Each structure stands twice: as structure tokens, then as C-alpha cells.
């Protein structure tokens, strides 16, 4: 553990103007506050914040960050408060400490909820001041270094999983690769102990059997480059055990088949020499196709710059080579922290503009599971590069689609997306993008995000925005249903209901506004009698047990899957007599009046519904039995085509020597349209039987 004078000397070495007295006071403060507290290892607890502060001095960060590292656990684990921190060390340090402090003292939250709230606060603080992230990453790294002292295996695995899912990717996204690799290695040891032990053992065997091979290859690379007139540094290293295991898992390969276990770095004086070195290596050694990446002309979002290639050495051994300038190498190891030039006011650095996406996710996520899911999606590192028609570059996760791209450009563009051209060709919105694709988003003024997009988008930003939009539409449409039901309730009241009565009802029901009341009625969270009692206390004494609406409510204008759900059991279409079932907290489920499933909903609130004037468009389901001979399926499809009905789904239900029965879901306009299709099917020689189900 660093002694007090050693820590101060470290800071003064790179910042002679640092306030020595303030640093000393922070050191003493954390020692006094943590007092006799012990870590799982048996060491004094204050050794942890001191070591975290030491990690910050390695990065040569400012004195406020060093003091924050020293104090980062005092609010969470001692009686100190943020006000105490501000009084002793100023508002800037207090704000930073508050950002790093976890919310583990929150009561009555599940583990996921607590983790989500911790992450929510951390991301918001990080967006205001990136030093919060740097302290948090150092805090997590030191905790991982001492994780083996925790006795409970399940707790070790939980912390390791959180590190692997959240903190290692965050370190990667700001270019702190040294932190990322060590976190991954320590987490890998806990999560996959057998695999970890096996790979480490194999690497030791390889090292002993091929003594000096890495140095020999590095020397051959350097000699080839020197003969071409290039002054370079070259050295080799074994690949990270976790990256080896990841490659084995992804490619389903045994250790013996992983041929590029060794990686080499070439350091040059300038960018031109990087490309010259690449040319020399490709001329001297055979290049492995598809393994070249140019992160100098197109840096990663975290600022990482380097040339990556893989060549065959001695005709059989594959060696990965990274070529970069010495300046790039200095900044690549610790990314954002390595070239720290903090802006006044703590604004987000251009290299980490992706933080804005994380903040949108925080604002739009509805519950803890969503927040954790969307954040993980937003920070994972495998990326592809795609361009707008004007040449603007956007980096996205592998597997990202046109909708993900639209949301990456701007949330409003994503919401208005109706189509896409990829490299000049119209393509489906679900098409995965590839490196170098030029993506032109086609938008419509009245377009809205669609629920089915959630089936193919992969970015956290897109998923969060789509879910938020659908959720807002659902609330608006449920409130519309509630407003219609409220009108029927008002007719049963002994007096006319005005604004004053509604305001008093909101107060009695503890609801914030009238729209919240309508949502509660529409989603059956409030019974009709409860609403009446809130409006006029005592008004339900002489009323019958059940209240029925005075007229059928129209679902015209509501969105299937949002304001209401068409039941899968009976597939009602416009023209059918329909009723709605209200489940508490959910949208209305619409059934045909003769649906057999209605018998199961006797204790659920029923609503008399109508389609409304000029309602059209729904999915009808048919059971069609065809003769088992060539061409009958085509004849059935011809009937659908002539009737202008689109097949949504077709499933073979039964098949024997004479017949096969298909279940067909069709987009139809209304009941009359579906009836004409059934009649046309029955008149066709290919069809033995056709029924609506």
C-alpha cells in the first residue's frame, strides 16, 4: 500500500502545482473515516481507496481526481455525507464522489433493480464528468485484483459477470485496453475456472517447448524492416488467455487448432512508416486474406489507431502484427486517460460522443431489466463501419440493421424511417449492414416506430427509443379507451361531473393528472365503482353490482398490438361482432363474440366494442385441406392473389397420402373479404375443404 508521502510525491512529480496540504488532508480523512474497517483479505479497508488513488497517479490525473479516488467509498461505507465532502474538499470533489458512490444502501430493491439504479446514476454522472468513469474503472480493477479473497463463490461470480458485461466493455470503449484485458482475465478466471486453468497450462507448455521462438520471429520481422531502411521497434507476446478462449468458443476449435496465438507489435516514427512497414511485411511474408484492418485512416470510436494484419511465418505459423507510431502506442494502452486534456466545465470529449447514446438509454428505459439490457448492447465492442450518402461515418455493432443506423444518425430519423437504400438498392429494413455500406434512410412525416422492429434491431439506443415510443402510444390509446369508459361512468352519476369533481377525485385517488386517471380506467387498474366513489363519495350505494357501458366503444383509430390486441384464439376481423376483455395493467384483448375462449374470462372486465366506421385490415386464419397432388398449393395461392390477400404465415398441419391440411394467416380488409376468399377456395378443384378458424 502507498504511504501518504509516496502518494503526494507521485502527484507532485507530474503536477508541481498540486495542493500538497489538500492531498494530505484527503489521505488522513479516508484513513480516519474507514477506521478499523477490514477488507475480505484482512487488510485495512482504507488500503483500497489508497491503491485506487495510486492507479490514478499512474495515469497522471489531476488532484481532484486523486482526492476523489481517496474518498470514493467514504459516503457509501462510513458516516460521511456528500455535504461533509463538500465542506472539506469543495463542490467539484463532492460532485465527483457522488457520481462514483454506489446506491447499495437502497432498501427493498431486487439485485437487478439495485444494479440498474447504480448504473443509471453512474452513467448520468459520467456524462457530466468523465473523471467519474476513470475512478470507477480503477475502483473495479482493484476490486477484481482482490476478488479471490471473497469466500462466497456465487458473490465472486456475480461481481465477475458484472465486470465482464459492463466495466470491461466500458474500458474498451474509452480505449483503456490495459484495464480491459486485466479485468477480462480476472473475470474469466472466476467465470470459467476450468477453461482458464487449461489455457494457462497449455500456454506454459507452449512457452517451454518453443523457448525463444517469439524473440526469433520478432528479430526476423525487424531484420526485414531494417533492410528496407525502416527504424522500428518490434516485440512479440502471447495473446490474452480470454481472447484465446473466446476464439475457441466462437469457432468451435480446440486449442491445438488456434494458430495465431502470438501477436507482434511494430513501432515506427510516423504514419508514413506504418504503411511502408505494412508493405514490406506483405512482400516478405504471405498475408492471410481477410485479416487486414486499417484503424489509422478509420480510428475506433475510442480513438484507437493502428494497422492490423496477419501473416504466415515459415509458411505455416500465423502471426498477428499490429503496426503503429510510438505516439499511437502511448495513447492506445490507456486511451482517454493517456491523452487527458480535460475541458473546462467537464463537457464530453469528442472521442466518447457515444455517451450521449447511453444517456438517451437511461432516459428512455422503462425498468431495470431494460436499462441493463440496453446498456450492455450499447457498450459491446465488435463494430462495423457504414456511411451516410454524404460520407459521414457511423460505427455500429456487428449485425446492426438499417433501423439501427437511422437511430445512430438521430433519434428523430429512426422514428420516421419507412425504407432504406443500401449501396443504391432498396432493401428490407431488417437487412444486416456490412463494412463500407452506404446507407440512405427513406423517411415519412407521419411514420412511427413499429413494434416488430424489436425483432431485429441490435443497438441499445434503437431498442430503448422504439420501446419508449410504443409505450407512449400504448398509454395514449389506453387513455382514449378510458376516456370513453369515463363518459359512461359519468352518465351513471347522480349529478353532472365537472372539472372540480375530477380534480377532487384525482386527489382522493392520489393520481397526478386527468390523463393518469383515464389510463387507470382504460387498463382496469381502477374499477368503475372506485371511480364513482372518488368523484362523488357515497354515489354507488344504490347501484347494481355490475355497470355496463351504455353503448359499444369503437376501436377505430387504435393500433393493433398497442391500444388493443386481437386475440389469437379467434382472429376477429372488421365485420365480426366483438367484445373486449380488460386485464389489469394491460391493453384490451379483442375477441369475436362467439369465441369459445370467452368462457374462461368470466371474472374479467368485459367491454362492448365496435370496429367503428370504415374500419379495415386484420389477419384472418383459415384451415384449408388440399388434395395431395402437384400444383394444388399453387392453385390455393392463386385464389389469394386474385382476391388481393397477403399471406402472413402458412403452416402444414397434417399430411397423408390423399390430403394435406394447411393453416393460413391472411391479411384481409374485413369479414366480407374473408368470406369471399373462403367461397372461392371451396369452388376450386384443388380444395377439399376450407374453413375459418
UniProtKB/TrEMBL annotation:
Residues of the signal peptide: none
Domain ACT: 621-693
Keyword set, alphabetical order: Transferase
Protein origin, superkingdom: Bacteria
Record domain TGS: where: 382-443
Pfam families for the chain: ACT_4, HD_4, RelA_AH_RIS, RelA_SpoT, TGS
EC number, as in UniProt: 2.7.6.5
Limits of the HD domain: 45-144
Reaction(s) catalysed by this chain's protein: GTP + ATP = guanosine 3'-diphosphate 5'-triphosphate + AMP
InterPro entries per UniProt: ACT-like_dom_sf, ACT_dom, Beta-grasp_dom_sf, HD/PDEase_dom, HD_domain, NT_sf, RelA/Spo_fam, RelA/SpoT_AH_RIS
One GO MF term: GTP diphosphokinase activity
Xref: SUPFAM superfamilies: ACT-like, HD-domain/PDEase-like, Nucleotidyltransferase, TGS-like
Enzyme class of the recorded protein, top EC level: transferase
Function: In eubacteria ppGpp (guanosine 3'-diphosphate 5'-diphosphate) is a mediator of the stringent response that coordinates a variety of cellular activities in response to changes in nutritional abundance.
Similarity remark: Belongs to the relA/spoT family.
Name under which the protein is recorded: GTP pyrophosphokinase rsh
